[in-house]
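Write out the 3D structure for:
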Amino acid sequence: MTDIPAQHQDRQPGRTDEMEPRPRDAMTDYQAGGKLKGKRALITGGDSGIGRAVAIGMAKEGADVAILYLEEDRDAEATGDLVKREGVKFLALKGDVGDEAWCRQAVNTAVAELGSLDILVNNAAEQHPKSSLEEISAAQLEKTFRTNVFSMFHLTKAALAHMKEGSAIVNSTSVTAYRGSGGLIDYSATKGAIVAFTRSLATNLAERRIRVNAVAPGPIWTPLIPSTFPQDKVEDFGSDQPLGRAGQPDEVAPSYIFLASADASYMTGQVLHPNGGEVVNG
């Protein structure tokens, strides 16, 4: 059984402070070991949810952090407060990752402020549930792909000019890439594309010794959920998983930290699956 009450937010992206209960995203119990000391990380969608937990976790491991976010200023400020407590540099850049020119500008600004770039986490995404294919407009289809997939091409292309041997790229895909989702056809299609992008880019960058991996979360309690699903879906969110509940951002972030660290030095083109026990062919 899930302990999430029925709720809905009328704007997307959602806001953390309007969620009940608040997600666990501050990595409060995380035990760091200096795995990313001296590294510089750029994280998209880093204002809340999984991106926030990753930003804080990487800061705890010693990395300077820059986040990109769309418009959620309060969430971004809260993330910044938590990151800066770790004594590292922090930068928040507001804009649309679906815009190629802005992606180039954001990467260049982050590198100028942090000094370099060692880790890129492509995490930003949007979803718009529809009950049938006929309901998905061309505009929605293009926008979802632009945010979820095109942004990864644009940001990675810009970031590679600054990344060197030993750098790491970690992409957010989803369990829906492996089992599909009847109500999220376009979203699931983007997540499948991200798996192929990850595997192909890993092969392409192997000679440069830049590793590329991905994480495929299952149902995780983030602002995206109440801002996209109706109340009854939110109330049942995650209850169909073997563990019987939705996951928390804090339970997913360690997968990103591991893949970005030297502990994963012999892993590239792979996908980790923090999904509450659902077995997928990944």
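The chain has a mean pLDDT of 95.
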